[in-house]
């Protein structure tokens, strides 16, 4: 994010580049998806959303700062428009429309890869109670660093969210090495259209993980059980708030002059992809 830049000239460049992104939201796909035709799932849109984090592997300071700043920015209204909180209000609209305060209530570090460098769901299950401190009203967020493989991350799902023994979770990794397609548009990827953009923080991994985390968080709040939204009347093609708008992004402002590139999100009120 822009405030993490180490030199004034770099900061000016990033500021100008980010201004262009805000003026022209990133829409790099011509794919047209059908409207959502069926929604019968529950949501997590009532009351405060508590977050518990496991930092799995040696997370860098830039990455930790970016992710925690993103969480704080969800409920911050003192940034220039468009804001991260405006993006979050679209997520809130999937429920009653009431505000959903987000609070990080627990953080645990596991810098030595206690379960190895391949996180299958059985291992995510082990990490969940560490993230939540055993509290069922907390969303477990597993952040894995570069060199860790998160199950399914390279198999069409860049961010994983779901339910394990009635506990909701989100798991993301640093995709730079294994899944460059999940780090796009911050780095080139075969099959992805259009140019790349410079990550606002200057760190590809940090901004890629924020982007993936945002999509996973929107999914776990609006569709925690994985059966809420469909792209066909038969209910046989699933879709989510962020996956409904593939390869489209929103450049938004956060707390303390930070900047983020987040996935565009489907606005159920306007039936369009929100980008600003």
From TrEMBL:
<dbReference type="GO" id="GO:0048046">
    <property type="term" value="C:apoplast"/>
</dbReference>
<keyword id="KW-0964">Secreted</keyword>
<keyword id="KW-0052">Apoplast</keyword>
<keyword id="KW-0732">Signal</keyword>
<comment type="similarity">
    <text>Belongs to the EXORDIUM family.</text>
</comment>
<feature type="signal peptide">
    <location>
        <begin position="1"/>
        <end position="29"/>
    </location>
</feature>
<protein>
    <submittedName>
        <fullName>Putative phosphate-induced protein</fullName>
    </submittedName>
</protein>
<dbReference type="Pfam" id="PF04674">
    <property type="entry name" value="Phi_1"/>
</dbReference>
<dbReference type="InterPro" id="IPR006766">
    <property type="entry name" value="EXORDIUM-like"/>
</dbReference>
């Amino acid at each position: 994010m822009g405030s993490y830049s180490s030199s004034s000239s770099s900061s000016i460049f990033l500021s100008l580049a980010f201004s262009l992104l805000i003026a022209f939201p990133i829409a790099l796909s011509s794919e047209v998806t059908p409207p959502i035709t069926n929604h019968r799932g529950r949501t997590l849109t009532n009351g405060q959303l508590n977050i518990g984090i496991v930092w799995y592997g040696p997370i860098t300071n830039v990455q930790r700062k970016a992710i925690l700043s993103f969480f704080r920015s969800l409920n911050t209204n003192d940034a220039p428009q468009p804001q991260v909180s405006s993006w979050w209000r679209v997520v809130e609209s999937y429920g009653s429309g009431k505000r959903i305060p987000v609070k990080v209530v627990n953080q645990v570090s596991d810098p030595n890869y206690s379960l190895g460098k391949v996180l299958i769901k059985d291992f995510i299950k082990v990490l969940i109670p560490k993230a939540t401190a055993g509290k069922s009203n907390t969303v477990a967020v597993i952040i894995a660093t570069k060199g860790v493989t998160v199950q399914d991350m390279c198999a069409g799902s860049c961010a994983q969210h779901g339910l394990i023994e009635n506990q909701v979770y989100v798991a993301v990794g640093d995709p730079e090495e294994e899944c460059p397609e999940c780090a796009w548009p911050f780095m080139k990827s075969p099959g992805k259209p259009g140019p790349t953009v410079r990550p606002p923080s200057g760190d590809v991994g940090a901004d890629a993980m924020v982007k993936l985390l945002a999509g996973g968080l929107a999914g776990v709040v609006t569709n925690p059980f994985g059966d809420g939204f469909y792209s066909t009347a038969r209910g046989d093609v699933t879709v989510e708030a962020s996956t409904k708008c593939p390869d489209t992004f929103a450049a938004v402002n956060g707390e303390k002059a930070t900047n983020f590139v987040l996935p565009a999100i489907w606005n159920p009120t306007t039936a369009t992809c929100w980008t600003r």
